[in-house]
Amino acid sequence: MNEIYRIAIDGPSGAGKSTIAKSVARALDIDYIDTGAMYRAIGYKMKKEGIDPEDLSAVQTMLDATRIDFRGGDIYLDEQVVNDLIRTPEMSMMASVCSQIPAVRQKLVEIQRGMGMRKSVIMDGRDIGTNVLKDAEYKIYLTASAEERARRRFLELQEKGEDQSFEDVLEDIRQRDHNDMTRQLNPLRKAEDAVELDTTGMEIDQVVEAVLKIVRGE
Ligand code: DC
Q: I want to staple 190 with a disulfide (CB 3.0 to 4.6 A). Which of 66, 96, 141, 148 is the partner?
């Protein structure tokens, strides 16, 4: 494949989007863009600067002075690598809250569209197939049951030594599903032309293979 193509992956929290997208990006030698990390970075900055999500003028001032970029697989917020700082349960919730603010979405969607214009990419998030890259060549909607997603996140957090009970993780997942699916602006939903993959009970390799088959037209 020589021409530029875009793969959009959407789905709820914990469906395995980033793990799958990273592997697919490697297999196809294209860039991976994690749009959730961008919302997390904004959430992190709002928290750090004590900005009230309801104070829209403070949010806009902060956005105007913010640079977000991906380089070599790292996410940069104002030239600082924030990969690990944004991967905490608190930042998951901050990201979910700040992703409901129209000015935040507007700024990030603009950056994301620019990234998807220059080269072949696989981009994951909640509104990629329905909004950011509406004309993406390939669209995949990844899902799994809430319990399975909570189980995966719980194991991930345990490995990192984070102290959260399974029930709390499941509650978090349900709360974020609710936020993501019911927000007014570009809520999470399957694009009409997306292929749905339910990964409950599937191994990572099987899901990666299924996505590669779709892209290769097999
Ligand atoms: O994929 P993630 O868990 O890192 O995403 C963090 C939050 O950002 C999630 O609750 C929803 C939001 N998000 C969004 O609204 N739109 C996107 N394209 C990506 C993420």
A: 141
